[in-house]
Amino acid sequence: PHWNIRLGNITTNADVGGDVVVGLRPPPAWSTPRWDRRHPFGVFVRASVVGMVVLRDEFLDGSTFSASPRVQKKTFVGVASAGLGVRIGRVILEWQAHDQSLTFETQPEPHLFSTLSVTVQ
Q1: pLDDT in tens, 95-117
Q2: Residue 38: which residues within 8 A CB-CB, separation 6 or more?
Q3: Would you state the pLDDT for residue 31?
Q4: Which of 23, 79, 87, 119 is the most buried (most CB within 10 A)?
């Protein structure tokens, strides 16, 4: 499980969610990954869900200090993700696909995107 609270001029929101990671020597859930010389290879899959309450988003609500274009944003937003990862020596490479629910009223369809991360231990 995880949670975040963000207070800022670009975004103010809170989220709560959870991850499930399974595989052969996946990265640890609650600590910084450490290099294990005895087991230099690992492979894993990750799935997660996150629910967000969005109080303010500069990109949807418009400028804080002057008149600007804006849209009617959604207060509750969800994201479901799934991905694959591999660890080779000190390097972890992970790809995830994300499906984010509608973030504003006139959005034609949910936002689908992916991320690629590289971690060097």
Answers
A1: 999 999 999 999 999 999 999 99
A2: none
A3: 64
A4: 87
